[in-house]
Structures are given as C-alpha cells and as structure tokens.
Amino acid sequence: MAPLLIIGCGNPLRGDDAVAWRAAERLAESLRDTDALVRTSHQLTPELAEAISQARRVIFLDADCGRRPGEVALRPVEPASSLSDLFTHQLTPERLLALAKRLYGSCPEAVLISVGAGSFEFGEALSPEVEAALPALLEKLYTAGGIGLQPCPGNS
Question: What is the residue-wise DSSP string for 4-23?
C-alpha cells in the first residue's frame, strides 16, 4: 500500500490547465526515493480507483477557473453519497473515492488542492500569476502529504 498518491489532472497543452501537471512533475522528481506515487492524467477516470483504494492518503491537483488566477486553495474531499451518475463526462474526486470504496472496499482520506487559472489557450506556458503560485502549491502539497518534517494529522 502506497501511503501517498498524488494525482495531477489537466491538459499540459492548454495554458494554466497544465499547473497540476507541472506541480506533479516537480514533486515526482523530489520523491524518487520514497514510496509515494505521483500520476498525471488529462481527466479523472474510473481506472484510477484501484490505485486510490491502495493509498492511505490521496491528493488531487487541478486548475480552477472559478478562482482568481494564482489563488491556491485546499479542501477535504469525501466520497460521493451516490454513484448514480458515475459515468458522466466529468468524474469528480468525490465520485472516484466512492468508486474505490464500492469496488475495492477502501477509501483513503483525500484533499483537493486547486489553483485559480485564467488562461486555457493553446500553449505550454502558464500565465505569470499561475507560474508565481507554483511554490505555494508545492508547499501545500508537502504539508497536505506529510512530506518532509511533519507527519500528517491522524496518520502516524
């Protein structure tokens, strides 16, 4: 069982939508000698449920067009109460946790760290605000994942 699974979601060719990929790639480099698992995906898919069920903690990363560009936010994620609309166009972290629980009998604690995005234009460059937010995003990742100096609350 991997104690930590990090899933960066977005499109690396659509401007600020690449912020989760960039953060996940940087994190993967610094975690090479740990048992944390870092994945990137264009979108959340049912296939991720198995890996989620095997983790003690999951951190979802994503761009958020509803926030001010560069604003970093963290919120806990609980499994959805219903799987009735599971196979819609967009699978949310909540539905994916519920799917892991239903299929594999295990649902780890999870958080979503999002970064406000302003540009989804074609291209690999992040906007200046989102680029400047990467250090804050990585800091939240390290804290939420219990990576480094302090253990996560409740997971000794």
Answer: EEEEEES-TTBGGGGHHHHH
